[in-house]
Design brief:
By secondary structure, this protein is an alpha+beta fold. The protein contains one helix and two strands.
């Protein structure tokens, strides 16, 4: 299983809970840093 994480890095306890709920070990966890610059104006 591959986990794409858009939040804070997962703790060991969170990763263990994922294994418990899914019955699968994560082969890889990819932590993606997402940042929205609230100081810029979006153009539609």
């Amino acid at each position: 299983m591959l986990i794409l994480n858009f939040g804070h890095p997962l703790t060991e306890a969170q990763q263990a809970k994922i294994v418990e709920l899914t019955g699968e070990q994560a082969e890889r966890v990819i932590n993606l840093t997402v940042h929205k610059d609230c100081g810029t104006r979006e153009i539609a």
